[in-house]
Every structure is written in structure tokens, then in C-alpha cells.
Amino acid sequence: MRIVVQKFGGTSVANLECMRKVMEKNKKILDQGIKLVVVLSAMSGETNRLLGLARQWSKNPDPWETDALVATGEQVSVALFAMLLKDNGIRARSLLGHQAEILTDCSAGRARILGINSERIMEYLEKHDVLVVAGFQGCDIRQRITTLGRGGSDTSAVAMAAALKAEMCEIFTDVDGVYTTDPNICPKARKIPRITYDEMLEMASMGAKVLQIRSVQFAKKYQVPVHVRSTFSDEPGTIVTKEEEGMEEAMVSSIAYDKDQARVTLMDVYDEPGVAANIFAPISDADIVVDMIVQNPSREGRTDMTFTVPRGDLDPTLKILERIKTEIGAPAVVHDAHVSKVSIIGVGMRNHSGVAAMAFTSLKNEGINILMISTSEIKISILLDEKYTELAVRTLHETFGLDRSDAT
Ligand code: ASP
Ligand code: MG
């Protein structure tokens, strides 16, 4: 049995007219004799409306009841859509998370999928041509309804595709693919035809607006090809896939940026075993994610420790440091909340040298000062003053040839 999974986001199911467009997309697949699993989000704005209700009702909404509440958004869209398909003579039915036996762990609001009863779904597919599955929701072992975190329908769709060994998971959305950078700040940004899972993961800050990052991790683990494309056009979008020959030819595939950054420096802490642990353990216990870290000897027996945290976590971080300051021997803590991180991403970097030097030179030519640098195999991240973000992105985009249409 040939199977394709198609996922449609909130703006694609916002009203009857949009749903008709969705049905047209379904028909193109059905006409090829392929069975369809259609995963839907709630109609646009609905999840926020429901969360708002929870906050009106309770100062501290119970997380389990919140999940039971927000999951209704997807229940509405799948029922309405299945109704439309049936009216048009298509053999379809809706399935909620627990009916599709999407088993998750027991964490309300950010549950992870543990398994899907694929045999049961295959049985349903014998009798129906389209199964309309509620995204974003599952059920835990105690029969509690769970949700997968904002944007979680992407992950539902990829998990379905993995469980059913579908040929493709198409994610239909209101953008037409993944771009070489944010088109809002760089008009020369272009749609990327193919990108690897790893590059997409590294694009987290930008890419996450297009796909829930967890869905990409899932796709990578089970090698599900994902096609991100627009509901409102027939143009191909971006295929997220495993690395293939030829993909390494382009040195750099995209430039990402993240303005949600703050920098903290602990000056002159003791240079001895355990100091880093003593600094970062309490920060991680507070669920704060530290990103770039640089340790640099300042004078005999002393070292400076600089790192970045999400801007919203700066205050709690400073409070923690205040508490442990004496223990680690830090005479001063300085911070800067107006920094941003610009990243150059590309699997091709593995085989090309000189990417870092090229990036630094182009920033120098614009008079942009680099505050911190961190690298991974396929990414170079540069921390800079927030006010230079747009300029840096545009400059790097041009330097690495991404403005040109033959670059990727
Ligand atoms: N409806 C959920 C949300 O708004 C899940 C999704 O759309 O993917 O986050
Ligand atoms: Mg989304």
C-alpha cells in the first residue's frame, strides 16, 4: 500500500474555503492511487483562544485539564474536514490522538511520542482512502490526553509518516519553504530546494518558525523525507532530507540569527577544578539553557568565564551568580542584554576550509566587532552587538554567494 502523510497548519484550515484548497491537494495524491493520512492543526488562532480561556478560569490552570482543553482545537478541525471529504464522495474518517493510539510519555503540555499503533491505522486505511488525524495530541499510559508543545502537529505528522513508512511527509503551511535567511531582513533571500536534517536543526532559531524542531529530530532519526510547501500554491517547496551527493558543493546553505541572547562574564574566577561545574550546575538546575561558553585565563590562577543565555533568562541567571559569587571567587559579574547571534550554516563546511576567515573578513569590512565565536562541524556562530544583526546577515548572505540564484 502506498501511503503519503500531509500536514496542514492552522491557516490552511481556517475556514471552509481554505479546507476546500486542502481537499484539492489531497485529490492530487488520491488520483495516483495513494492512500492519505492527513494531519491537521487547530483552525488558526484557536489554540491561543483556548489557552486564554484556561487563564480566565484559573490563576494556575491544571496542566492536564489544559491539555484536555487545547486538544479540542484539533478535534474541531478534523471532524469538519472529514465531513467535507465525505460530502465530496471521499472515503474518509477522523481520528483523535487516542483513537490513532498515539502513545506519549506522561508530561502535560510537552509530551513526547513513544509509539503509534501502526497496525490499527493500516486496518483503518484498508477501509478508508483518507484518515484525518488530529495533530498535536496523544494519550499517555494512564489514558490522559496529552499535547506535544506548540507547533506539535508537525511532529505528529512526521511520527505518523515514520510509523507507517510513508513515502513522504508533506508539511503544508503559509510559507513556501525554507529560505537561505529571513526574507524580512534580507530581500535577496531565496528558497532552498533541498536541505539536510542537520542543517535544518542548526537553523533552529529561524527554522523553528517553519517546522517544530522536534519534528526534524524525529525525521532525522527515522529518515523520513519532509517536504515543506505552501497550501496556497503548487510550487515545490523545500525538501528536508538526509545528506546526498552534491549537497556538499555549496559551502554555506543559510544564515540564521537569534536576537534572543544575553551575554554574561564572570571576571577573574579561580582557575581550578570544579569552578565551571559550580557555575553551570545551578544554572542548569534552574532549567536555563546556556549556549556559547568561552573560558579565558586572565592572570595567574584566575580565569574569565563568558557565556550566553536566552535574554529572558538573564535576570534569574544573575541572581544565581550573585548567590555563588564568593564561592567561585568572582569579584565582578558583567552582562550585556543587547547582543545577538548570527550563524553561518552548511554541511559543505566540513570539506571546505576558510569559511570562518571569509566570514570574519566580511564583518571587518563592515566595521562590525565580534564579541564571541563558537563553531560546530557545520556551523559558525558569531555573537555581536544587536544593532548590527541585519547588516551582518545581509553581508554574510552576499559573501557566501547566497544572493545568487545558482548558489544552492
Ligand atoms: N495547534 C497547535 C499550536 O497552535 C499545534 C500546531 O498547530 O502545530 O501550537
Ligand atoms: Mg507550525
UniProtKB/TrEMBL annotation:
GO terms for cellular component: cytosol. It comes from the Bacteria. It catalyses: L-aspartate + ATP = 4-phospho-L-aspartate + ADP. Belongs to the aspartokinase family. It holds the Pfam family AA_kinase. Pathway: Amino-acid biosynthesis; L-threonine biosynthesis; L-threonine from L-aspartate: step 1/5; Amino-acid biosynthesis; L-lysine biosynthesis via DAP pathway; (S)-tetrahydrodipicolinate from L-aspartate: step 1/4; Amino-acid biosynthesis; L-methionine biosynthesis via de novo pathway; L-homoserine from L-aspartate: step 1/3. It is an enzyme of class 2 (transferase). Substrate binds at T47, E74. The lineage of its organism: Bacteria, Pseudomonadati, Thermodesulfobacteriota, Desulfovibrionia, Desulfovibrionales. ATP binds at K7, F8, G9, G10, T173, D174, Y179, K209, V210. This is Aspartokinase. Its EC number is 2.7.2.4. GO terms for molecular function: aspartate kinase activity; ATP binding. Keywords: Amino-acid biosynthesis, ATP-binding, Kinase, Lysine biosynthesis, Nucleotide-binding, Transferase.
